[in-house]
Design brief:
It is a single chain. The protein is mainly α and 439 residues long. The chain has one domain. 73% of the residues lie in helices and 0% in strands. Helix 6 runs antiparallel to helix 18. The protein is globular.
Length: 439
């Protein structure tokens, strides 16, 4: 009788409902699905992140979570969100605009939860593998769409660029650049241990991303930031002679790519042409508009340097500063000055800028150690910092979630490794190497 009661459906439901390990596994799956769908969708990412939050919260140790919030890697991003909320009080924008301007910062609230969960999970690397696999499939699809544009999901004439299956060339280039450079660490590590074939496979994937960015989608932001990312890798992980040899080879390859890629040549030539048109004729070119946005934003910042003009105020400021005819650069009205620092400075002044830079610094310091996970986390932060010179990538949906997921998952894994070292336990990587030797 007791056995039948114990095995009743209701008792099994209660047992599963309280099974912490099952909920942890479910949370891992939702995190993997979020990374897997990030290159393809926005709505699916939001759904899976929401499911992850609910699942993780069910089994969370709230005391441990509260202690984690005392670390700068957590309270700085939360403070930036809090400043956005408080900044609505002195903004002269409509309440709809103020609330809408809070929304891009909300994703930063997820960072502490990711740190907490992946400090305890053993499946953090699954998230990065899922993102790499998804980006590789998107890269293959990009080549197919470049050959046959009718296969693109974007409507004919819709902005996006050649070889874009979904989203836009900026988002796609950020994914490809991150994956191409991130693979440098495992490739070098495999070559050092004479595991040539896996290194060649990863090298082919990395080269595929780079070639796609040279011949299919060309992003000026990626062209500027990729050399910086590679320089960081060489500085941290290579001897100077090896670095010089590799960079010499990269310079030769870049020259060949420029000589054989009409897309690269067009982007390079357009830079100077667009600048001249803006300076001499006030034409609203891509380069000219950015310079105009930055110049006006610096003026807005000078008007309210301490606390800024308030959350959601940017568009109204540009409306009042617009001059000239409808086709001129000075007439353009926008709510985002295409620079993360200026976006923050206009709304929240020097206080917001200090919080933003302090958050970046805290996350950079988190990844000071050795290993693939620390390299991935460091690279995500470095890419975000330098691409944010030309865009507001913390606040943009796609690039912002790349930052939150990358830093959150890698940060949690780094915290886990530190906790293991303090406790005198081998890291997960150490376990793997030990078992490999045993086998």
């Amino acid at each position: 009788m007791n056995a039948s009661i114990a095995d009743s459906p209701m008792s099994q439901v209660r047992r599963y409902w309280r099974d912490r390990q099952r909920w942890m596994t479910a949370a891992d799956v939702f995190a993997v699905l979020a990374a897997l769908t990030l290159p393809w969708s926005t709505s699916l990412v939001a759904i899976f992140v929401a499911c992850w939050l609910v699942t993780m919260a069910w089994v969370m140790d709230w005391g441990a979570y509260a202690r984690l919030l005392k670390q700068p890697i957590c309270y700085l991003p939360l403070s930036l969100v809090g400043l956005a909320v408080i900044g609505t009080l002195w903004s002269d924008a409509t309440w709809g605009a103020r609330l809408s301007a809070i929304n891009p910062t909300v994703k930063l609230l997820v960072l502490p939860g990711l740190f907490y969960h992946f400090e305890r999970s053993s499946r953090g690397m699954w998230v990065f593998v899922a993102f790499l696999v998804s980006c590789t499939l998107l890269m293959l699809m990009s080549w197919i769409v470049a050959i046959d544009p009718s296969l693109s999901l974007k409507a004919p004439g819709e902005p996006g660029g050649r070889g874009i299956f979904v989203k836009n060339y900026i988002a796609q280039s950020q994914e490809f650049a991150l994956c191409a450079v991130a693979l440098a660490y495992p490739i070098i590590s495999l070559l050092r241990t004479n595991r040539t074939w896996p290194a060649l496979v990863l090298g082919a994937i990395s080269l595929g991303f780079a070639v796609n960015m040279a011949f299919v989608i060309v992003s000026r932001t990626a062209m500027v930031t990729m050399p910086i990312m590679l320089a960081v890798f060489a500085l941290l992980h290579l001897k100077w002679r090896t670095s010089l040899m590799i960079f010499g080879a990269l310079v030769i390859m870049a020259g060949l790519a420029w000589a054989t890629s009409p897309q690269l040549q067009q982007k390079s030539d357009a830079f100077f042409t667009e600048y001249q048109l803006y300076k001499t004729q006030n034409v609203a070119t891509s380069i000219g508009l950015r310079l105009e946005f930055w110049k006006k934003s610096l003026g807005f910042f000078a008007e309210a340097p301490v606390v800024g003009h308030g959350t959601g105020s940017t568009r109204g400021l540009f409306e009042r500063a617009a001059t000239g005819n409808t086709d001129s650069a000075t007439r353009e009205i926008i709510g985002n000055p295409h620079n993360q620092t200026l976006n923050v400075a206009v709304q929240w002044g020097i206080i917001g800028v200090i919080l933003l830079y302090a958050m970046w610094l805290a996350h950079l310091l988190l990844f000071r150690g050795e290993g693939l996970v620390a390299w991935i986390g460091l690279l995500v932060v470095v890419q975000n910092i330098f691409t944010s010179l030309f865009n507001s990538h913390i606040f943009d949906f796609h690039e912002g979630w790349m930052y939150v997921l990358g830093v959150g998952v890698a940060g949690g894994m780094v915290l886990q490794a530190k906790a293991r070292r303090v406790a005198g336990e081998p890291s997960a990587a150490g376990h793997d190497r030990w078992h490999a030797r045993r086998r």
